[in-house]
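Re: the 203-residue chain
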Amino acid sequence: MKKILFFLEKYLASALLLALGATLRFHIKGEFPSQPALVAAWHRNMIPLLYRHRGIKVGILISSSDDGQLIAGPCETLGYVTIRGSSTRGGSQAIRRMITHAQSHHCAITPDGPKGPSQEMKDGLLYLAYVSKLPIVPAAVDISSEWIFNSWDRFRFPKPFARVNISYGAPVCIQTKEEIKTKLSVVQDAMDRLSEKNKIERG
């Protein structure tokens, strides 16, 4: 029964996202990287980005739990490559698969996921940047009209015909193992500043 529900959910959810995304008014600032990179965005901003970057085999690390399957199914239908497992450092199979995928395609990371605290950087992203030798590219999202869920991250769901601002920041490289710790605040600040600049002016 669970398999049937997951099967139905992945197609219904992806169809809903495609229908919603077609109504959104995107305003893009900065350049989405042309070469493989680790694109970092806060967990609460997933919906507009999932629509925007569908179909280009972006790799996404998703929990192997049933909750993760609710996300993984629609993502796969939209053309993402889902990598199931833990984000724990130390050479887990999921991390190794993500590193391999990142050599030829972008990977999308939510550095405050899967459980928060919301919009607080964890060093797993920097560890992945160090071992993959790929830059971190911050991405910020703001939505003019939305529903906000009562979840740990205050998850955002755009209302139809909303304006969506997406900004991409300058890449940050992690060259040495020591920089995993020393540049944690640098990447956090870059994400925070980009989010502030990307805000939609509201009357």
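Residues 38 and 136 are 5 Å apart (CA to CA).
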